[in-house]
Design goal:
With 487 residues, the chain is an alpha/beta fold. Helices cover 44% and strands 14% of the residues. The chain folds into two domains: 181 residues, HAD superfamily/HAD-like (Rossmann fold); 230 residues, 3-Layer(aba) Sandwich (Glycerol-3-phosphate (1)-acyltransferase), CATH 3.40.1130.
């Protein structure tokens, strides 16, 4: 049994832990406040069911019936749109007649060998902060008690609400106790706890990584997504829920390679679609519009990226315009294509012109390439952009000029703003908050994430003057800094 750590030792003044827990420590104390935690990818880094299954399988004591039931349960889960209750029901049938003591023993082995080292330090700190405030802390998980109980014991958590298999005379009956602690079942479990311990759900916290837990997130006063999946990231952004992302180096998996291959493979059909569309309408612009929209749609979908946009109406309210974006990732090109979609061209550094496939597609789309090292040539190259704006085509620019190495916002070059002034069109600031999650610095593989985007209302440049341009640029850059949390 792991020794208990005094909670006060977890909260070190001036540390990252203190920053993480300061809202809790500054808040109300008392047992009437509940703090509910999911298990997998919230309290621990891994998936406890996977660890449990592997340990059980390697023990050589799994029956053929149990193995088949486990795989059948996964199949039911996959084909039933992620219905955990179906998986649990099928899996329970496979262990009918098995002694519960065996699972208790396996659970302890899994904890000692794997899960004890998988508890996030940040989650431990959150739990201890709630305990220090006298809150009623519980784990509410879809996992079984054989996975949950050892972790709860380690973290000094007395209350466990989880999916339980029916036991009669020490043996599993092949049934689960309804409802399974998943989805709506978690909300029911929390309500039962609230009734028994006189908790006010409006004062309660719930920490989870999964959008499947939305029913409980929506009834507590303090929803707290932790390492959220793509759908929960989107839900959190829409609802302005604070998000915790804990440090956890993730190695590229097979799906990262598959998604990247599919994304890059979609460039060819996008180009073919553009040629076809342009030829059918005898319009070069129709072809360019088709290329931009199709590349954005296909690549973003294949990469597993979900765009969640606030202020989407501002992308369309005034065109032509100069759209300015911050630059974090190689994924930005595709994100911008999906957002802007048509009647726009871009300005890019000349080095991109020589990129295989993408460089040729950018040239075909009329992207204007500039030499950042030669100011006179760069100014000369910008003249077609003024003509484009005056003829109704918007322009897309990354005013930083290049990606930031540490994801902090770089200084803004003045070209985009001079361009808008000359053409007398508005500037539309668009902040991409976390494109680096989709393709981090140094990586060439896509990750499946929700990308948060904030589009600001168009800013008129009609009254701008050269002598006050720096002030206008600083104000707009300030919008980016604030939205990125870097102000």
């Amino acid at each position: 049994m792991v020794s208990k750590i005094p909670v006060v030792r977890e909260i070190v003044p001036g540390s990252k832990t203190e920053a993480l827990t300061q809202d809790i420590m500054a808040g109300e104390a008392g047992a009437h406040i509940g703090a509910f935690f999911d298990l997998d990818r919230t309290l621990i880094k891994s998936f406890s069911a996977k660890c449990f299954f592997q340990t059980r399988l390697l023990s050589g004591k799994m029956t053929a019936k149990e193995i088949v039931a486990q795989f059948a349960g996964v199949l039911v889960y996959a084909t039933g749109q992620g219905n955990f209750a179906g998986l649990a029901a099928v899996g329970a049938q496979g262990v009918k007649g098995v002694n519960e003591d065996i699972f208790i023993e396996v659970g302890e082995q899994v904890y000692q060998k794997e899960l004890a080292d998988q508890i996030y330090p940040e989650s431990r700190a959150l739990v201890n902060a709630h305990l220090a405030k006298g809150h009623t802390v519980a784990i509410i998980s879809a996992a079984t008690p054989y996975q949950v109980n050892p972790v709860a014991r380690d973290l000094n958590i007395d209350h466990v609400m989880c999916t339980r298999m029916e036991v009669l005379e020490g043996k599993f009956t092949g049934k689960i106790q309804e409802p399974a602690c998943w989805g709506e079942g978690k909300a029911i479990a929390a309500q039962e706890l609230a009734k028994e311990y006189k908790l006010e759900l409006a004062d309660c916290y719930f920490y989870t990584d999964s959008a499947a837990d939305a029913p409980l997130l929506e009834i507590v006063g303090y929803p707290r997504p932790v390492n959220p999946d793509t759908k929960l990231s989107a839900l959190a952004f829409k609802n302005n829920w604070p998000v915790f992302r804990f440090d956890d180096e993730e190695r590229p998996g097979v799906m990262n390679f598959v998604r990247t291959g599919m994304a890059l493979g979609s460039l060819a059909p996008a180009a073919l679609s553009a040629v076809t569309r342009g030829a059918m309408g005898l319009s070069f612009q129709d072809g360019i519009n088709s290329l931009m929209a199709t590349v954005g749609d296909l690549v973003v979908a294949a990469a597993g990226i979900e765009l969640v946009v606030k202020g989407q109406e501002h992308l369309w309210s005034q065109r032509p315009a100069v759209f300015i974006f911050n630059h974090q990732s190689s994924a930005d090109l595709f994100i911008v294509s999906k957002l802007i979609r048509k009647n726009a061209t871009g300005i890019a550094k000349k080095e991109l012109k020589n990129m295989p496939i993408i460089g040729q597609m950018m040239q075909a789309a009329g992207v204007i390439f500039i030499d950042r090292k030669n100011r006179e040539k760069a100014i000369e190259a910008m003249k077609p952009a003024v003509d484009a704006l005056q003829n109704g085509t918007s322009v897309i620019i990354f005013p930083e000029g290049t990606r930031s190495k540490d994801y902090t916002l770089g200084s803004f070059k003045k070209g985009a703003f001079h361009l808008a002034m000359q053409a007398k069109v508005p500037v539309v600031p668009v902040v991409i908050r976390n494109a680096h999650d989709a393709m981090p610095q140094g990586s060439s593989l896509f990750r499946s994430v929700a990308i948060e985007v904030v589009a600001f209302p168009p800013i008129s440049t009609k009254r701008w003057k050269k002598e006050t341009l720096n002030r206008q640029i600083d104000k707009i850059r300030g919008l980016f800094l604030k939205e990125l949390g870097q102000a």
